[in-house]
Amino acid sequence: MKPSIVWFRDDLRVADNPALRAAVDDGSAVALYVLDEESPGIRPHGGAARWWLHHSLTALGEDLAALGIPLLLRRGDAASVLRKTTTALGAGALYWNRRYGAAERTVDAGIKSWAGEAGLHVASFQASLLHEPWEVTTKTGGQYKVFTPFWRTVSAQDFREPLAVPEKGHGFTGALPAHDQLESWHLVPSKPDWSGGLAESWTPGSAAGHKVLASFVAGGLSNYSEGRNRPDTEGSSRLSPYLRWGELSPFEVWHALGSKRSESAGIFASELGWREFCWHQYFHNPNLATANLRPEFDRFPWAWPGSAGSNGQHPGHETAPEELRAWQMGNTGFPMVDAGQRQLWHSGWMHNRVRMVAASFLVKNLGIHWQLGEQWFWDTLVDADPASNPANWQWVAGSGADASPFFRIFNPEAQRVKFDPQGKYIAHWIPEFGTPDYPEEIVDLKTTRAEALEAYKGMREVH
Ligand code: FAD
To answer: Where are the beta strands (DSSP E) in 49-90?
Structure first.
């Protein structure tokens, strides 16, 4: 019997995995993951993401082993790895779950046409998004640019029930072709090993994701409408990295909310909608991380421009200009910003409310291009997502779809008083707050706010 290959990508799970299900249904399945840093246009993972990926692949390998399915790891350009592996295994079929970035889709289309010509059975499935971006269009057939009508249309659909983990099948008993050892990819840092805070904060893998989901549904969900804004509590789900890596599917999360929904559950569901909306934008705008969706923002006079974004180079924290570096390291003198940035640096995650405050501060008070913030988040977030990260940065900067207007400038002090009223969040991340060791404010909020509004006005007046 010819084995079938299931090619894992951003779907590192055995439950609700239609590609895996199809391969197991065929008889004997072999799993493959390719670390592709060579195909043009695919954005290389940042440091925190690489750490997560290492542990996620370890967990996936164990889950697959329990089903009698080996996981092959290969590094290289996906097209040639797929060709070689398929030939070496004498595989008869190839399955994957779809991905939505332009570069990734080009790679997949090339492999699909090669495999078809080679006589393989090839099939792809919807698994990572609740909607297919090309199927959901406005009345005039275009992309949605406003969230509310987009989500009204998408959420009116009946989303399929999640698939169960496949039964243990025949297992693959043939000889495996050459493959890599995970350690040889050096995804986890050493010399120095800066990942202690990540390990302390997270357990990657599908089993852990399911636990986080179950405990959120049983606990935090009922108070989500209030709790989600409070960085001093565990008021949001912390599911983002599990969704990012596909350790949980959006179908599993959606159905876990049940059919009778409280107001809080409805709000939470619409946050899943924002994830869909970000991917909708990315599908239609492959340059989301490097080009303003509103072109008039190309004229904005940034103090430190984002042109570096186009070649993927960005100032690391050793070389960044002083103010950017103070922001990255959480030394701006504004505790809400600094606590967030320190939370990010330590744990690979930042609370959404604080992401908005920190991003607004960088873009509007420091006048630094949103792309530089986006690149920093890309490198430091465990949930760094090629759609949600740039889409949210453009949302904060005002240059994106259905964005927050530029003139709405978060005041980090007012946000602190409102959302961390007892100062618990600040005290946790900035132990020296209130002592002479805490940095002075690096800018004046009022002056920089006025300058930002002036620059915005100037941008709009030029024709
Ligand atoms: P919850 O509030 O529990 O929300 C549940 C899920 O909904 C999240 O896990 C996430 O998958 C999705 N979600 C919630 N809010 C958003 C949103 N605004 N946009 C897209 N999806 C959302 N989210 C990422 O997953 N990856 C990123 O790289 C990312 N970068 C961001 C950058 C900036 C500047 C900002 C302001 C937000 C960014 N977000 C990103 C969105 C949001 O901050 C995180 O999804 C959220 O903080 C994750 O925590 P949670 O799982 O507890 O969220």
So the answer is: 71-75
Complete edge-to-edge strand list for the sheet that includes strand 4-8 = 71-75, 29-35, 4-8, 93-97, 121-125
Q: Is 396 in the pocket of ligand 1 (CB under 6 A)?
A: yes
Q: Whose CA is nearest to atom 3 of ligand 1?
A: 237
Tell me if residue 123 falls in helix, strand or coil: strand
Tell me the pLDDT tens digit for each residue of 198-238. 999 999 999 999 999 999 999 999 999 999 999 999 999 99
Whole-angstrom distance, CA of residue 278 vs CA of residue 388: 5
Residue of 216, 228, 275 to test ligand 1 pocket, by largest number of atoms within 8 Å of CB: 275
Give the integer Cα–Cα distance in Å for 309 and 4. 40
Closest-CA residue to 52 (of 189, 238, 226): 189
Average pLDDT, the chain: 94
Which of 225, 252, 383 to mutate to test ligand 1, by most ligand atoms within 8 A of the CB atom? 383
Band (pLDDT 50/70/90 cuts) for residue 285 is very high
Residue type, 309: G
Distance CA 282, CA 13 (A): 24
Tokens of 181: 């050892």
359 lines ligand 1 (CB under 6 A): yes
Q: Which atom of ligand 1 is nearest to the CA of 358?
A: 34
The pTM of this model reads 0.97
What pLDDT was estimated at residue 171?
79
The single residue listed with the structure tokens 């993951």 is 33
Q: Compute, in angstroms, the gap from residue 267 CA to the centroid of ligand 1.
A: 13
Whether residue 216 has its Cβ less than 6 Å from ligand 1: no
- Report the pLDDT value the prediction gives residue 303, as an integer from 0 to 100: 77
Tell me the two tokens of residue 318. 């050793």
